[in-house]
Amino acid sequence: MRPLFQRAGIVIVLLALPAAALAQSAPADFKGLATLIANIITAATGVVIALGVVYYMWGFVLALKERDSVKGWERLRTQAVWGVLILFVIFFIWAILRVLENTLFP
User: Fold this and answer.
1) What is the Cα Rg of the chain in Å?
2) What contacts 24+ positions apart, CB below 8 Å, involve 5-9?
3) SS (H, E, C) the chain
4) Each residue's pLDDT expressed in tens, for the chain with a length of 106 residues
5) Global pTM exceeds 0.90
6) How many CB atoms within 10 Å of residue 59?
7) CA–CA separation, 73 and 38 (whole Å)
């Protein structure tokens, strides 16, 4: 599992490189800094949602391969329940971030 996180970190860094190449000068005030941080979090949230959906679908497909046995059905049910729960949490956090962004930066 560790190489997966290392690869994900490399992908995130590579996705962030264009933003660093087009970087402007440092923010002049706190509002500029807060806006910069909010934009980074918004972009990262989209990446996390996409990775969560891909991981859920991948696990679901792997569990479907083993549906012939009782153990396979147990794994499928567990994967489905945890996947839906985790996706709900991810979208809930995304919604909270959107509310905060719309409240603080109208």
Assistant:
1) 19
2) 8/51
3) CHHHHHHHHHHHHHHHHHHHHCCCCCCCCHHHHHHHHHHHHHHHHHHHHHHHHHHHHHHHHHHHHCCCCHHHHHHHHHHHHHHHHHHHHHHHHHHHHHHHHHHHCC
4) 567 667 777 777 666 666 655 555 667 788 777 777 877 887 888 888 888 888 888 877 877 787 777 877 787 788 888 888 888 888 898 888 888 878 877 7
5) no
6) 17
7) 42
